[in-house]
Amino acid sequence: MAKCEYCGKDMSFGIKVSHSHRRSNRTWKPNIKRVKAIVNGSPKRVYVCTRCLRSGKVERA
């Protein structure tokens, strides 16, 4: 679910490092919104990242 249907932005993985330098795994999730957009001429609910919304790649319904 944490994936943009326009640009394909997905979860990314890395390592959290504490002040004492203990390391543990963590994830970064993209800022995904569920919006109603025009897809193939008809309105449809899609999951889109806010970067695509702001840049105008998505035509809102």
Architecture blueprint of SSEs:
Blueprint: E1 12-17, E2 23-28, E3 32-39, E4 42-49, H1 50-55
Main features:
single chain; two-stranded antiparallel sheet; 1 helix; 10% helix
Q: How many individual β-strands? A: 4
Rg, Å, rounded: 16 Å
**Shape, principal axes of CA atoms:** elongated
Strand order of the largest sheet: 1-2
Largest sheet: 2 strands, antiparallel
Helical content band: under 10%
Low-confidence stretches: none
Q: How does the helix and strand content classify structurally?
A: mainly beta
The number of helical segments is 1
User: SSE string, helix = H, strand = E?
Assistant: EEEEH
Residue fraction in strands: over 45%
- How far the N terminus sits from the C terminus, by CA atoms, comes to 21 Å
What integer is the average pLDDT? 95
Question: What does this molecule look like?
Answer:
- By secondary structure, this protein is mainly β.
- The chain is built from one helix and four strands; from the N terminus they run ββββα.
- The protein has one helix at 50-55; strands at 12-17, 23-28, 32-39, 42-49.
- The strands form two sheets. It has a two-stranded antiparallel ribbon with strand order 1-2. Strands 3-4 form a two-stranded antiparallel ribbon.
- β1 and β2 form a beta hairpin.
- The chain is elongated and about 55 Å long.
- It starts with 11 loop residues before the first strand and ends in a 6-residue tail after the last helix.
- The model has no long low-confidence stretch (mean pLDDT 95).
